[in-house]
Amino acid sequence: MSLRDTDKSIIGEVWTSTEAIDNLSNLCSFGSRFGGSESERLAVDYMVSKFAEYGMDRAAKEHFHHLGWTRGTASVGTVAPIVKEFDCISLPHVGNANVTGDLVYVGYGTSHEFDALRDEIAGKIVMINTRSPSYFPRPIHRKEKLGRAVEGGAAGVVFMRWEPGMLAETGSTFHDRECPIPAIGVSREVGEEWRRMGKGGVPVTLRIRLSNQFKPQADSWNVVGEITGRTKPEEIVVVGAHFDGHDIAPGAMDDGAGAAVVMEASRALAMHKASIKRTIRFCCFSIEEIGLQGSTNYVRAHQDELDRITFMLNLDGAGRGDASKDLAIQGSTELIPYLRRLASSMNEPMAVDNNIVLFTDCFPFLAAGVPAATAANLGGQTTGVRGFGHTAADTLDKVALRDLQSAAIRVARLILRVANADDWPAKRMSTEQVREVIGPSGLEVLRLAGRTEFPR
Ligand SMILES: [Zn+2]
């Protein structure tokens, strides 16, 4: 079959099927798929059976252990200037707490804002908004903000969601140990009420009480479906997205949609597996939300294959409108002209440029030097805001079948070409090259986020 006929088959098959949204709907029906939960276990078995049904040459779950965490109760209130209770949520891997302290607002939590308040943070409860400001030269992850608060000696941290709507936003703190200080999420409306209370320098005193549970050696699994390459089986292309969500929502957008796109691309390509040269591994990673644990464990467990992974494509965010239409290359810049030519030959308006992302599943691959890219919207107007991701409103109604299909078609056509390319320009990077690619500011962010095991 010609490439054009294969394209037609992929496009026709995906566009006329409801499989992508059916899979997403089923994944969401299990629950959040949060690491260590019953819904995770159900989703894992479901995805293994789907990969087998699609005709993968191998469909399996790959086990690892992690420090499990379960949400208990959380309350926050002002004790001065007035006594009042407010809604809040614990952030994952926060333990038990009963702290009282004066509130200090540090805005976006940039390094400059923290520096300016250096002497006012120790012993206080620091409030930071969740936005990554567009004027700052790079996105600022929650873990970096938290790291600066911990280093400043804060007694606790409150993340105020930037977008209004009475929603609190969750997100990882630490993954391999308890967060050293209590950290909670509150809505924009709650945070702004506290800021008004403190107008003119009036001290606002908060009391935070939290109770949560840890479980050492909790179980988790990545799910892998493989099309074994017909002529170059030893060379591997990895296509992955995390299937876990945060425990407060079904995680339909983040990232059930990405997992559904991986599965749908696998289904479309399995129909043409006789003509696929390199091995393609479709990976649904677990526990991305709490420290990229699934992908980190995958890279660790597959050390002896890393030299042979020619490309890793991460699809966190795929299937949400334009969110995944472009490719952010992770340091392997020789891929930029190559993939631009490929996109042009596919008639895909796909921007391709270098843009390192430290907090998604391609990162453990980059850290090990594997050529990688992540689906992104490189010209996006929504930089620095999260939408409904990480809130209780990340529900199935936010995802459209056509968006899942468009993403699955784009991915399947791209990966078909990558797996069958005669020449492939990218090679594994050395640790030195990886450090250079991440750069001094990236390495500082990793240090603040407690990720000193990276690179390698
Ligand atoms: Zn995600």
Oligomer: single chain
Overall shape: globular
What is the β-strand count?
14
Percent helix, as a range, is 25-40%
Order of helices and strands: HHHEEEEHEHEEHEEHEHEEHEHEHH
CATH class descriptor name of the largest domain: Alpha Beta
Structure description:
The structure is a single chain. Helix 9 (335-345) links the parallel strand 12 (326-329) and strand 13 (352-354). The longest helix has 20 residues, at 401-420. The protein has two domains: 3-67 and 217-448, Zn peptidases (Aminopeptidase, 3-Layer(aba) Sandwich), CATH 3.40.630.10; 72-213, Glucose Oxidase, domain 1 (3-Layer(bba) Sandwich), CATH 3.50.30. The two termini are 41 Å apart. The chain is α/β, with parallel strands linked by helices. The mean pLDDT is 96. It contains twelve helices and 14 strands. Bound molecules: zinc ion. Zinc ion (ZN) is lined by residues 242, 254-255, 288, 316.
